[in-house]
Design goal:
By secondary structure, this protein is an alpha/beta fold. The protein folds into three domains: about 10-145 and about 360-580, TIM Barrel (Alpha-Beta Barrel); about 160-245, no CATH class; about 255-355, no CATH class. The protein has 18 helices and 15 strands. The chain has an eight-stranded parallel beta sheet. A hairpin with a 5-residue loop joins β7 and β8. α2 runs parallel beside α3 and α8 crosses α10 (about 320-355). It is elongated.
Length: about 600
């Protein structure tokens, strides 16, 4: 009886001898029917199961694109009862293909995409409330794409020279539109005198010399001055535009003002000439011709027809007409100049407004993500209350659990994951108070802390290995240190275990890659008391069970056996379904063959 693995029917024996695999959970296949998957997992001997989904929207049940909403009231009750009878604890994974919580999309940060993400999460919450009666809901974080090195510049690099070449992104917080500069783009700046303030100029007033600065150099300047790089760089660049636009607006407005004064003066002349024409038409024509010629001399622009042309004869006969044309032209040009000056001034205001609303990508996205998580957690909290009031006695807290996923996306690094959890808790606390759901800030903070926790995936974080600047041993120590901090700070509430070789999220059998699974489990068990979900993925067809047995082997779980004939996990795996001999141990997603059954076709376990 030296085992900690038991079939679900062996609970009493496990309890009597004081051992069991209570902390190990397994996930279902997201493309398969969850009821059949749950049956298979119960048969495998697990005591905890995570129901998993991948599709979103309406999905297609016939094609394996299953969504939580495909399960009606009766099917949800079947799932719940099956788990309850077998004393299986359930958790749920939000559809893996759900949009980012931040609303990040190819069009920028979209309120519509963010709402779709929240909708998917609400559907999963209702499913989890009906089927699992609460518990953990894992939701992927893929909040926006950012260069690898930005997560931690001293330790990680996406490619050689990434720090000098990767785009530097920022967001307009009014529209969610993403803009960016290439870090190796050059911006010309006038060379300054020794006082670092005065621009060196030529005798004619032009700039003596221009100096090019790259964006990453400005970024370094900002960090050295302990300023936020985006705002610093944006202001450096936009201030030049601002000065130019201000100068242009002032210059054009000055011309418009001068022309307006001349136009006013010309209006008085036209009025005098017209009054004179009523008394002495000949003298009025003479006055009109005189003023046209004078204005032509002052402006050095042709305002009267050339002598010898038919138009000139008309001018001599009716010069007042040309004086009116000049007056109209002055008024038109005055209006056009003012409009140009206004446009320049409008540009000034737009630049100033743009400078005010530009936000670093992380700052903007983190606020959006936290808002979505908080909204979902409040929805879940109110669902709890409603179900308890309706008489549901076994309702547990519903925990929204953002998970670190892909290294290229924000939220995958341990420190980014912590930021999401902390900000989401703060947002939920503030919203609970604002909506008067609870009165006490302390109570609101406690509710938020209990209902927003991280899912930490050791396989996902292992994909950072490819970007780490140190050795594999240094990387392992770094990850375990980060895990220790998250665990100590109460950030982690759920755990996923899968394996890879540090490049892609492959989900090979735990123990068959190089993720530090055993060390991770030893570290996290110091304070963590929750479940550890074994996630299958890229095992051979029909052999998803290997993920489970591989995890037990990796975690040094003793072998469960009907007879004392096997001593190693290799013998167990090799004998599976009679590959080398009659099996004493069966586990898996498929119904076993009838090769080794009793006459009644009862399956061996």
């Amino acid at each position: 009886m030296d085992t900690d693995y038991w079939h679900s029917m062996d609970r009493k024996a496990a309890k009597d001898v004081g051992i069991g695999n209570e902390f190990i959970s397994v996930s279902t296949h997201p493309f398969k029917e969850q009821l059949e998957e749950l049956k298979a997992k119960i048969f495998s001997g697990t005591k905890s199961v995570e129901l998993s989904f991948i599709a979103t929207g309406s999905g297609s049940r016939a094609q394996g694109q299953i969504v939580p909403e495909h399960y009606g009231t009766e099917e949800r009750e079947e799932l719940r009862q099956l788990a309850k009878i077998n004393k299986i604890e359930l958790t749920v994974h939000n559809p893996a293909n759900a949009p980012p919580l931040s609303g990040f999309s190819q069009r920028g940060f979209s309120p519509e995409v963010k709402q779709e993400s929240l909708k998917e999460l609400k559907r999963t919450i209702e499913f989890a409330a009906d089927v699992a009666r609460g518990g953990n809901i894992t939701v992927h974080t893929q909040e926006f794409q950012r260069p690898i090195f930005e997560a931690e510049p001293k330790l990680f690099e996406g490619h050689k020279g990434e720090k000098e070449k990767a785009p530097l992104y920022f967001v307009d917080d009014r529209t969610g539109q993403i803009q960016g500069y290439s870090r190796n783009a050059e911006i010309p700046f006038p060379k300054l005198a020794d006082d670092k303030k005065t621009v060196l100029r030529n005798p004619d007033g032009t700039v003596l010399k221009w100096e090019n600065k790259k964006i990453y150099e400005l970024e370094k300047e900002a960090l050295d001055k302990k300023q936020e790089p985006i705002k610093y760089i944006f202001e450096k660049i936009k201030n030049k535009e601002l000065e130019f636009e201000k100068g242009q607006a002032k210059e054009v407005a000055s011309k418009a003002k001068k022309l307006e004064e001349e136009s006013t003066f010309l209006n008085r002349i036209v009025e005098d000439v017209e009054n004179q024409a009523k008394i002495d038409p000949a003298n009025a024509r003479f006055m009109a011709r005189t003023w046209v010629n004078r204005l032509q001399g002052e402006t050095r622009e042709r305002m009267a027809p050339r002598q010898g042309t038919p138009e000139y004869d008309e001018f001599l006969e009716n010069p007042i007409k040309y004086l009116h044309q000049i007056k109209d032209r002055y008024e038109y040009e005055t209006k056009a100049l003012y409009e140009t000056a206004d446009a320049r001034q409008r540009s000034v205001e737009q630049i100033k407004d743009e400078m005010k609303h530009i936000k670093p990508m992380e700052e903007f996205a983190l606020k959006e993500t936290a808002g979505t998580v908080a909204d979902a957690a409040i929805f879940a909290y109110q669902k709890e209350i409603t179900m308890k009031k309706s008489g549901v006695q076994d309702m547990k807290p519903i925990v929204i659990s953002p998970e670190n996923v892909f290294a290229q996306m924000y939220g995958s690094h341990p420190r980014e994951l912590k930021n999401i959890i902390v900000k989401s808790r703060e947002a939920m606390r503030d919203e609970l108070i604002a909506k008067k759901i609870v009165q006490s800030p302390q109570e609101a903070a406690k509710i938020a802390e209990d209902r927003i926790k991280a899912t930490f995936d050791i396989g996902h974080v292992n994909t950072w290995r490819q970007y780490f600047k140190g050795s594999d041993q240094e990387f392992k120590k770094y990850i375990l240190d980060e895990v220790g901090k998250l665990n100590k700070e109460g950030i982690i509430g759920h755990v996923h275990i899968n394996d890879n070789f540090g490049y892609e999220d492959i989900h090979i059998t735990p123990g068959q890659g190089n993720a530090p699974i055993k060390e991770f489990v030893d570290k996290i068990k110091e304070t963590y008391k929750g479940k550890m979900v074994i996630e299958a993925g890229n095992q051979r067809a029909g052999e998803g069970w290997q993920a489970q047995t591989g995890a037990w082997r990796t975690l040094n779980s003793p072998i469960y056996r009907a007879e004392g004939v096997y001593n190693t996990w290799t013998e167990i795996a090799g004998s599976y379904f009679g590959k080398t001999g009659s099996p004493n141990y069966l586990v898996g997603d498929l119904a076993p063959s009838k090769d080794w059954t009793l006459w009644s076709e009862t399956q061996f376990e």
